Amino acid sequence: MKNITRRNLYSFIAGLAALLMSTAGFSQEFVDGEFVEDGMAFTPDFMKPEELLKLIETGSTDVIIVDNAPTMAWEEEHIPGAISYPWVRAIMPPVTLPRNKTLVLYCPCAGDDADSIDMAKKLRQFGYFKTKILEGGWFKWEELGYPIQSSVAAEEDA
Question: Is the same domain home to 36 and 52?
Fold first, then answer.
């Protein structure tokens, strides 16, 4: 009887451990301005739209503007010079973004920049430490009336 009880106990502990490990990746919370996941904090760095506009106008080569919207949305309109790197649940290597430039990520998230913050956090796991989030994202940029590159305008000019 002792062996059966001990075997049941070991099975229970192994099952409980497997359950806890399988849910570990989903334990993210926002605490005091930081994203905390699995005990590790991530504090996103933000860039104001005015600062990015100035960098664009001066022709800065120190930044790469990264649009995290779906590719079809990027094809319709985006910030001038932005490249398309859509949000994904899990980034698969190889990552083709340069590490020697500051990546300024933005998304069409309704006021919370969630997708861009998530992408910056994921890119950090691949050694991308020079990332900034465009404060207010796409909608703030558009609201301020800043330049937009549009395939619609290109089609109308043709």
Answer: no
pTM of the predicted protein model:
0.72
> Side by side, which strands form the sheet with 46-47?
46-47, 131-134, 102-106, 63-67, 83-84
**What tokens appear for 106 in the block?**
């933005």
Same domain as 84, residue 110? yes
Which residues partner with 37 through β-bridges? 28, 40
Structure tokens at 110: 């309704």
Considering its fold, how many domains does the chain have in total?
A: 2
Q: Are residues 62 and 101 in the same domain?
A: yes
Question: Domain span at residue 32?
Answer: 2-40
**Within this chain, do residues 8 and 66 fall inside the same structural domain, yes or no?**
no
Based on its alpha-carbon atoms, the radius of gyration of the chain, rounded to whole angstroms, reads 21
Q: Domain holding 59: CATH number?
A: 3.40.250.10
Q: How many CB atoms lie within 10 A of CB 58?
A: 9
- By three-state DSSP, how is residue 107 classified? coil
Tens of pLDDT, residue by residue over 41-79, are 789 999 999 999 999 999 999 999 999 999 999 999 999
Determine contact, residues 132/47, Cβ cutoff 8 Å.
Answer: yes
Rounded Cα distance, 10 and 89, in Å? 34
Q: What SS3 class is residue 34?
A: strand
